[in-house]
Design a protein that fits this description.
The structure is a single chain. The chain is built from twelve helices and no strands. The protein is mainly alpha-helical. The structure holds 2'-deoxyguanosine-5'-diphosphate and fe (iii) ion (FE) (2 copies). 2'-deoxyguanosine-5'-diphosphate (DGI) binds near residues 67, 124, 173, 184 and 188.
Length: about 200
């Protein structure tokens, strides 16, 4: 059953319905449906881990807000906001969270740094992640529409131990990138070093 959280307006100057309408405009169908599922999974993980469910709903809905924007929008934002120029060496996969958070500020008026940080970290993780960061990182990975080898194991581990889930996803993502000879964003390696050795027993 879909859970619709009523927003307090402390974190975002929109109702949930207004936010959903903005996402409907910003995203194609398959991506829009993904964010609705991530929202629901984030709410479940938030409840299990004593995290604010309103923030979980907002980050779940907003995390891929910028995913379908043209590259030039991100390049302009990186330059205008004097963001790390190394970002220009990457592409949409890295930009849509880190740079997308700036678009959430500019366009949706989201100013809550905890929410913006969870969006910034949702693709690469980070060495230091709050429980909200972890909830979004894992909800994005295990939402019910995901279907890849290992997703059931990811769901099982995450249900038992959210932190072990973070470690599992981080290892799988790095394996996937290396297998494809893809560039690895430095923060992805920092996430690996901070999480994977620490949870090696839980993820084997
Ligand atoms: O936006 P979603 O598809 O819902 O999920 P996501 O934001 O977690 O993005 C996943 C993609 O990002 C996946 O194809 C792997 C890629 N990715 C994650 N870390 C890195 C990366 N791509 C590069 N090039 N470098 C990274 O460090
Ligand atoms: Fe994403
Ligand atoms: Fe996503």
């Amino acid at each position: 059953m879909t859970e619709e959280i009523t927003y307090s307006h402390n974190y975002i100057p929109l109702t949930r319905d207004e936010l959903v309408a903005r996402l409907r405009e910003a995203l194609r169908d398959h991506r829009f449906e993904h964010v609705l599922r991530v929202e629901q999974t984030a709410i479940e993980l938030a409840k299990a881990n004593h995290v604010d469910v309103e923030k979980a709903s907002i980050v779940g809905l907003c995390h891929d807000y910028a995913k379908q924007r043209p590259d030039q929008d991100f390049i302009d934002e990186i330059k205008n906001k004097h963001m790390d120029p190394d970002l220009l060496n990457y592409g949409n996969a890295i930009w849509h969270g880190i740079v997308g958070a700036e678009l959430l500020k500019d366009e949706l008026g989201i100013m809550d740094e905890e929410i913006l940080n969870a969006v910034r970290k949702h693709t690469t993780g980070a060495a230091n992640m709050t429980l909200l960061d972890q909830v979004l990182y894992m909800a994005d990975y295990i939402e019910p529409g995901r279907d890849f080898p290992g997703v059931d194991k990811a769901r099982e581990i995450t249900t038992k131990n959210l932190q072990a889930g973070v470690a599992y996803q981080t290892k799988q993502t790095l394996l996937y990138l290396v297998e494809r000879n893809s560039p690895v964003y430095p923060r992805t390696l920092e996430t690996y070093n901070a999480w994977v050795p620490a949870y090696q027993k839980e993820i084997d």
